[in-house]
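Each field is set out as follows.
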Amino acid sequence: MSNEMKKAIAKFPLRLMPSVRRHAERFSQQEGVSLNQFINVAVAEKLAHLEHEEWVRGRKKPTAALAARAMRLLDKAAGAPVEAGDELEERSEK
C-alpha cells in the first residue's frame, strides 16, 4: 500500500458495546469479510439511508397540478403500441 493510500485511510478507534461487537463479528464471519469491512459497509448503508431521507424531505411536494401533469403523461403513453421486447408474458389461469 502506498504512503498516499495510508494517509487517506484514517485510523479511528471505535468502541462498541460487547454485545454489538459479538453480533457484528458473527455476521461479518457469515458474510466472509473482516469486521472492519463489515462496519464500513454498515456505516455506508446507514449514510445512504439518511441521505435518501434528506432527499425525500427536500424534494418538491406533490401538488394537484403535478398529479394532473403525470396523469396526462400516462394517458398519452396508454395509446402507444408496446415496443418489441416489452410484452407481458401470457399467463395461464389455474
About this structure: Residues 17-76 form one domain. The first helix runs from residue 3 to 8. The radius of gyration is 24 Å. The mean pLDDT is 88.
